[in-house]
Each structure stands twice: as structure tokens, then as C-alpha cells.
Amino acid sequence: MRTLRPLLSSLVTLCVIASNLSAQSASSGHPLMDAERERRIDELLARMTVAEKVGQLNQYSNTFDLTGPPPDDGEAGRRYERIREGRVGSMLNVTGAEATRSAQQLAVEGSRLGIPLLFGLDVIHGYRTMFPIPLAETASWDLEAIRASARVAAREAAAAGIQWTFAPMVDIGRDARWGRVMEGAGEDPYLGSLVAAARVRGFQGDDLADLSSIAATAKHFAGYGFAEAGREYNTVDVGTATLWNTILPPFQAAVGAGVASVMNGFNVLDGIPVTASAYLQRDVLKGDWGFPGFVVSDWQSILEMTTHGVAEDPAAAARLALSAGSDMDMESDAYRAHLERLIESGAVDEALLDDAVRRVLRVKFALGLFDDPYRYSDPEREADLLLSPEHLALARDVARKSIVLLKNQDRLLPLPPEGRSIAVIGALAADKDAPLGSWRAQAIPNSAVSLLEGVEAAVGAGTTVSYAEGYKLGIGQRSFIQDLALDAEDRSGFAEAVRVAAGADVVVMALGEEAFQSGEARSVADLTLKGQQEALLREVLAVNPNVVVVLMNGRPLAIPWVAEHAPAIVEAWHLGSEAGHAIAEVLFGAHNPSGKLPVSFPRVTGQVPIYYNHFNTGRPVDPGTVFWSHYTDAPNEPLYPFGYGLSYTTFSYSNVRADRSEVSPDGQVTISVDVRNTGDRSGSDVAQLYIRDVVGSRARPVRELKGFERVELDPGEATTVHFTVRAQDLAFYTARGVWDVEPGEFVAFVGGDSTATERTSFHVR
Ligand code: NOJ
Q1: Per-range mean pLDDT, top range of 14-23, 473-482, 617-626, 680-689
Q2: Ligand 1 and 67: CB distance under 6 A
Q3: With a 6 A CB cut-off, is 68 part of the ligand 1 pocket?
Q4: Do 466 and 370 reside in the same domain of the chain?
């Protein structure tokens, strides 16, 4: 095997050169590509030693802010010295204008070539001003709001010295057990692709060199969200149809939007750790898609290839990763420690190293770091921008748009702001930290507006608000890097909560999850409410039937009992800094809710993965025997379907029609629908178009989202929504292994959620 290595590495090099050529032609016009900058990169590369080149591919964390297991190699204390030696290209978790400036100084003034560092951070839903968690933001179905939220996050981060975020996470999430569903855009590749592009545009702006732009990262390439049994870091084993039709589209959309970097992942895919996948990173990403940016590994994912059992030691892991197209090494220290020798021995070709370094330098040049390495670290801008009133106002706007009304029996909501007594119940209701959510960058702990504060601020003088904690949630144990110990038994607060509830006209009760119950490494085997929450709700409902449940959670929860018995349910996720105000706007009707679920909510955990765009199976319906695809102890249907969300008014959908019955493969069809506000309040709804490809060379989903549009209507008002669908939008990864549209019948459904029944059909011929 050893003697084969030089040969293999030359083959890989040839592929790299070929893929570079295709990348350069495919990516001309890409924001990272610029002839003058390429020339400057050539010049710089010519001056660099192998060690300095390797240095550009080495990323260290600030050891005081770990976002993964700490390194145990004794190197930790030498990191700043390594910067001076030119052996570090990027740092993560160094935050703030002062800290980034002084670390930058070490690189620029201390190292031989003075190449600036790139500072990266997980700026996922805000830097200091917290926006709703990404899953919640997606519930707004408002791409402009999502773009604007990423823009603010970028502006704040950039002022604090960060030039690069590890976001957006574009992994499709079909399994609510996986804690990171909170960080993505939900279960649908069409919506996920649009959201991915909107987030990239928000972070990167029109020009990466703009001082309010930071480089974005599409992650985790690829398949990470499909961990078996929803268990974090677990095996991923999907076929090519799922890979191409479901997992890859959001990545391709991010690349199309000009994303500067891509992060690979911890998972294996078809037995190969994605960090070592030349197919994904070289053939697809850098080859077919012409991606000119760089790939960063996930935290120690290079080193973890030894644990996966595909590399005998860290040197082999480094060789595999670089050969496969992982350009930057996050925290494994494997490139720094081994690449130089691998290149000297011929085991890795220097052309691969040059290609990786060029990609990293491209991003540094595009960010303007070579013109002024300190431009991002500006204490004055930092002080002005962080938590500015303008940013908080936008956070509140996005938060209100992200709320989904799940149930409103007998129109309990909205509540009159005057003349009532309101009991606010539940530890989460007074919690100023949970709404900040997981992955909160530099949020100040306990800085969110709580639900209780929001309610108190919204009511008039004639209304009394009382509060009782009721259940416990493990408060005091919260931490990003340790498991939460949840107090499952404590009912000591029940009596007081029941007393307060009994004495009020209406109860607003918060249920759900603490911030760090979802996020990385927060998989659960049980999606029901933790601890004594449901038990308390039962006791509260027994003394006061007027209970509005406000859910705060990072993932879909299995809450069938709550759904049946609570008269009103508001899905408020983890909404960020302004959470309480935004929720109060919905509770008291200042804002008519219009969010729609970007994920299906299961009835029981055993239903997951559950998603609307599933296959039909060969036995989808009850044949009068047990021999059909179902559970014997639960229905197939979710508790709340994808796309679902109520309003304080109602809408009707009718007269779905196509403007033609036949479309050529390069033609288009317009599907129209009449929408009417049939209620007595102004409101907005998201009209959703789903299409079913009736017969394909592969089994096709029962329906797929292909368009949506928000309509705003006054009571009684009607409008017609037109969706233009190109036949090419119906293409998929066919049985022939190509992306193509196949002729045949297509059925279109339009309505307010994924169960829409109004339909029409057309043929592609
Ligand atoms: C591990 C996570 O998987 C990744 O998404 C994140 O960006 C890195 N840690 C850095 O914090």
C-alpha cells in the first residue's frame, strides 16, 4: 500500500488540477474570483515555505472558549507562539475587537510574511443581539426577514473582529431527536435551499469587503442531519436519491449564492467519513459545482478519522483529509504536525497544498484583510452597534413573524389587554436565558425579555399579572458543554401555581425546553415534555380551563395530550433577545400570527423521522387487513403537519387551475389559486404550492413544496396567487443518475399547509 501512495497522490493531483480548471471556469463571476487577487495570491504562494503554507490551513480555538472536546496534546499553551511562527491561518472563538486585534498583531507584525489571521465564530442567530433560532426564523417563511437577521448578525460580529461565521447550517432535519434541528431550516429541501441562500446573502452582503459583511459557511457537508436514530455524531447511511434530492440541494443553493466556505462534518456517509470524501468535496463541490472557496473540517473531524477506524494515525488522517479536499484543519492539529513531512516524503503532492492555501487566501483577500488586517476590530463600532435599538427592533420583528399559532379553540386568543387577571405559570415564563437559545455566540446570559416581562409590559393598568414557577427545569445547571441534570421529580411549586391559576381569568403557561436542551450533542430519545411540566398543566387545567400554552423549544415536541386539552397553543420556540415582547404582541393581538411550521410535529417519538414529502410505499392505505404501512399503536399522521399554522382570521383556497395542460421540458406552467380572508380580522397566510410527480424512474415523494407566497388580506377580501413553475423545477436525481425532469403527469395542490387538497394537474411532454 505504501508504495502505491505517491501514485495515488499524483492521480488525486491530476483530478485537482482538472477540477480547478472547471472551478475557475464555472466560478468566474463568483464574488471570490478576481484576476488581480489571483495574481497577488500567485506572488504570495511563490514566497511561502511549505511550513508557512501548512500554517494557513491550521485553525486553532481560543482555548478559553471551547466548542468541542479540548486538545490534549500539550500544544494548547503554545498557540500564540505558533501564530508568530506563521503556523496558524485562522482562530476560532477569539471574540471582541480588542482580543482579535491583539491576536492579529501577532500574525501581522510577528510572523515572517505577516499574513493576517481569519477569525471565525459560530454566529448562528445573532452575535450579541439574539434573533430567533434558525428553525424558528424559518417558520416566518419570510426570506427577507431571514436575510436581514443574518445581516445584523454579520454587522455586529464584524465590528467585534469576526470575519467568518460557521453558518448557515443547511442540514435537512427530519428527526426531532437530533438536537441540531434547532440550527437548520427544517425538513424541506426547497424551503431549506431558499433559506440557505437568504442567510448566505445576509452574512456576506453584496460585497465581502464591505465592513458589515462576513464570510459564511454552509455546513455540514454532507448528511450530518441523517444520523441514525437521531443520535448525535452517529452513522449516516442514505442512498443516492436522498443524498441528491434532499441533502445536497441546500448546499448547492448556498454555493450558488456565493458562500465563501463549506464545513464538512463528523459523520460517515456510506462508510466514509465525509472529511475524507473526495467524491463530495472534490468531485461534487469543487468540481461539478465550481466552488472556489475553501472547506474547513469540523472540530477535530480530521483526527476523529482514527477513531472511525479509517486512518491508522493522525498523519494518515491528515493525508486522507487533504487529499479529499478538506482545506483547513479545525482543532485537530494534524496538518500542522504532519503535512510538512507528508509533502517532503511525496505522500501528499505539494500542488494539493497550494490549491488549499489558494482557497483560504482567496477568502482573506476578498475580505480586504490584506489591505487592512485590523479593519474588523473596531472598539468604537463594536460599542455603537452591539445591541443597538435598531438591531433589537429587527430582532423583535423577526421574532413576532416566527411565532406559529397551533391551536385556538373558541377564539381564546387574542386576550384583551384590559380588565383581566392573568396568571403566568412555569419556570420558562420567567426565564431570561432560555429564549436566547443554543448557539448564542456572545449573547449576554439572562438578557432576553422573558415571557413574564413581555406580558407585564403589554397589559394596561386595569389588568393584574401574577406569576408562579410551578415546575423546575434544571436551572443553575445550564451549560453549553455539559449535560443538563433535569429535576424530574420536584413538584414543590405545584400548590402555589395551582392557587395562582385558580384565582385568574386566564392562564398563560410556558412549557418546553431550556436553551441547552437542544443544539449540538443534545439528542433525546424521548420527545415528550421533560420533568413535571405536563403533570402541572393537568392540575392547572383542572382549576382553570382558560389556559394558553406557550411552547418554548428548539425542536418539535410530542405533545398529544397538551394538543388535545389546552384550548390555545402558541409555538414560540427560542425567539431571542426580544422574545417576551414578541410573544405578548401575539397574545394580545397587536400582531396577528402567521408563522408556519418548517417541520412536522410527531404525536409520539416512535413516528420520527416524520416528514411530509415521504414516499407512498407500496401499501399506503388500509386494505381491510393489517397488511399496510402503519403502526398498530399510533396513527401515521403527524400531530401538526409541515407548513401548518393558524391565524386570528381564516382563509379559504379555491379554484386551483393550471394555465395549460401540457408543458415541454424547457417550458413553464402557471398554477393559480383564489385566496379569500373568510374571517373578521386582517391577516396574512402563506399560500403553498405542492407538486406530485405521479410516475418516475424512482419512487417520488407524495408531494413536494415547489412555491409559496404570502398574502395579506382584509376581512372578506380575495386575491389570486399565481405560481410560475418551470418544468426544470420538477427535475430530480433520476434512476439514470442524472438531474433531469421526466415526462408524465404532475398533480399540483395549493393551500395553507402540506395537507392541502385543492388540486389540478398537467403533463410534461
Ligand atoms: C462543532 C460543530 O459541529 C460545528 O458546527 C461548529 O461550527 C464547530 N464545532 C465550531 O464551534
Answers
A1: 680-689
A2: yes
A3: yes
A4: no
Domain boundary among 382, 416, 444: 382
First to last CA, the chain: 52
* Residue 62 structural domain: 2-116+268-382
Same domain, 365 and 416: no
pLDDT for position 128: 98
Question: Is residue 409 within 8 Å of 570, Cβ to Cβ?
Answer: no
pLDDT at res. 73: 58
Establish whether residue 122 lines the binding site of ligand 1, counting it when its CB lies within 6 angstroms of any ligand atom: yes
* pLDDT over 80 (residue 482): no
**Banded pLDDT at 316 (limits 50, 70, 90):** very high
Q: Ligand 1 within 6 A of 164 CB?
A: no
Q: Is the CB of 219 under 6 A from ligand 1?
A: yes
481 has pLDDT over 60? yes
Residues with a known catalytic role: 298
pLDDT in tens, 546-596: 999 999 999 999 999 999 999 999 999 999 999 999 999 999 999 999 999
Q: What is the CATH number of the domain that holds 581?
A: 3.40.50.1700
Which atom in ligand 1 lies closest to the alpha carbon of residue 266? 3
Q: Quick check: CB of 298 below 6 Å from ligand 1?
A: yes
Torsional sign, CA 271, 273, 279, 285: positive
| 373 and 407 inside one domain | no
The reported pLDDT for the residue numbered 26 is 46
**Residue 692, domain CATH:** 2.60.40.10
Site to substitute for ligand 1 among 65, 118, 122, 217, most atoms within 8 A of C-beta? 122
> Which ligand 1 atom minimizes the distance to the CA of 224?
3
The closest residue, in CA terms, to atom 1 on ligand 1 is: 299
C-alpha 741/C-alpha 755 separation (Å) is: 24
Ligand 1 centre and the CA of 154: distance in Å? Answer: 18
What pLDDT shows up at residue 24?
A: 47
Phi-psi region of 484 (alpha: psi -120 to 50; beta: other; left: phi over 0): beta
CA atoms 604, 606, 611, 614: torsion sign: negative
Cβ 386 vs Cβ 156: under 8 Å: yes
Query: Is the C-beta atom of 221 inside 6 A of ligand 1?
Result: no
225 located within any domain: no
**Closest atom of ligand 1 to CA, residue 68:** 9
Give the residue from 366, 382, 398 where a domain finishes.
Answer: 382
Q: Is 224 in the pocket of ligand 1 (CB under 6 A)?
A: no
How far apart are alpha carbons 560 and 407 in whole angstroms? 12
Q: How far apart are CA 391 and CA 579, in angstroms?
A: 14
Q: Supply the pLDDT for residue 704.
A: 98
Mutate to test the pocket of ligand 1, among 298, 304, 329, 440 (most ligand atoms within 8 A of CB): 298
Mutate to test the pocket of ligand 1, among 263, 266, 439 (most ligand atoms within 8 A of CB): 263
515 lies in the same domain as 533: yes
* Overall pTM surpassing 0.85 (yes/no): yes
Q: Could you read off the pLDDT of 200-210 as tens digits, one per residue?
A: 999 999 999 99
Q: Compute the distance from residue 703 Cα to the ligand 1 centre, in Å.
A: 33
How many domains does one find in the chain?
Answer: 3
C-alpha to C-alpha distance for 308 and 395, rounded to whole angstroms: 41
Percent of the chain's residues with pLDDT above 70: 93
d(CA 113, ligand 1 centre) in Å: 29
B/e letters for 446-476, b = 16+ CB within 10 Å, e = fewer, are ebbbbbbbbbbebbeeebebebbbbbbbbbe
Whether 264 contacts 283, CB under 8 Å: no
| pLDDT at site 675 | 98
CATH of the domain at 286: 3.20.20.300
Check whether 67 has a pLDDT greater than 70.
no
| Digit-coded pLDDT (tens) for 383-418 | 999 999 999 999 999 999 999 999 999 999 999 988
CA distance 235 to 224: 9
Q: What is the pLDDT of residue 473?
A: 82
Classify residue 143: in a domain, yes or no: no
